[in-house]
Amino acid sequence: MRQAGRSLPEYRSLRAGVRMLESCRQPDLVTEITMQPVRRHGVDAAIFFSDIMVPLDAAGVDLDIVAGTGPVVAEPVRTLADLDRVRPLDPAAVSYVDEAVRMLTAELLATPLIGFAGAPFTLASYLVEGGPSRNHTKTKAMMYGNPQLWHALLDRLADITLTFLKVQIAAGVSAVQLFDSWVGALSEADYREYVQPHSRKVLDGLADAGLPRIHFGVGTGLLLPAMAQAGADVIGVDWRTPLDQAAKQVPGHPLQGNLDPAVLFAPWEVVEREVRRVLAEGRTAPGHVFNLGHGVLPETDPTVLTRVVELVHTLSAR
Ligand code: CP3
């Protein structure tokens, strides 16, 4: 969740003068950036440094990741003819991912490496809008107005995502996380009709790999059961839904989450109280991976993050 290092001075200095997508193509840089928060904070797992847009870039879509804005697509996908520009992903086009994962697993030893990809809906929202969007109007216009084109686009994105995750799995990641960050913009009925079959294609396609499949979105309080039914093992929850409520919605599923990233700007007493609450609520689930409820904000004080990790370790060791 964009947390590898945006708040770390050592990340900023490594990235100085290197564009985001360019940094993702350099296995040495990817390895070093992925290791930085593990070394500094002593977290229990590493998240692979990359971006959800990397496989689309590798599949030939003309795009950029602009600092402070996010992904920007040069020619948005709006018609059947535009679909031709979304090519299948050749695993050889992301050989730098394969290489970086191998370098990392050699360095991390027993610390798990979490691989990831963007889910079809969230990728489609960037492709159709051409960039970040508040109301996803163009995306929804295609979804409702041309369902055939919509399903063809999402099917293609599901194949790209599946290929991208299989590359990471073959190279040795221990778990995968499928990010459907913006799917909370949909009602449950629309999610089931327009999105779930495509997310299921990705998640079911990984079933044989036998590693945990984590699925996360923002504002998904009402979508959690449908997201679990898409084939996820672990459900990521944003900060709006208390974990004990989420646990009731998706019985049998371990949860990941969900400290509000903005709480890290509050006085320490508040941070501690909120960490304790998240851990207590997480105990009602069959398993709990402590995490933030969305990405670390760039202005976050990294020393607070280190204290949070220490506190979680102390409290969960009991
Ligand atoms: O946590 C990590 O740093 C691991 C790697 C990671 C990144 N992006 C690196 C990144 C992961 C897991 C992502 C996922 C991602 N990217 C998602 C899904 C998770 C989520 O946060 O919702 C989404 C929606 C994106 C698309 C994207 N990429 C956005 C919205 C942005 C932020 C733009 C900004 O500057 O505010 C990016 C850029 C990005 N991806 C950064 C990082 C570290 C920051 C850019 C930079 O350092 O220059």
Observed structural traits:
single chain, 318 residues, alpha/beta, binds coproporphyrinogen III, decarboxylase
What layout of secondary structure does this protein have?
Blueprint: H1 9-15, H2 20-24, H3 27-41, E1 46-47, H4 54-58, E2 63-66, E3 70-73, H5 95-108, E4 113-118, H6 120-129, H7 137-145, H8 147-171, E5 175-179, H9 188-204, E6 213-216, H10 224-229, E7 234-236, H11 243-249, E8 255-259, H12 268-282, E9 288-292, H13 302-317
Parallel strand pairs: 1-4, 4-5, 5-6, 6-7, 7-8, 8-9
Antiparallel strand pairs: 2-3
Helix pairs in contact: 3-5, 5-8, 6-7, 6-8, 7-8, 8-9, 12-13
Coproporphyrinogen III binds at residues 1-4, 6, 15, 20, 47, 49-52, 65, 67-71, 116, 122, 179, 181, 295.
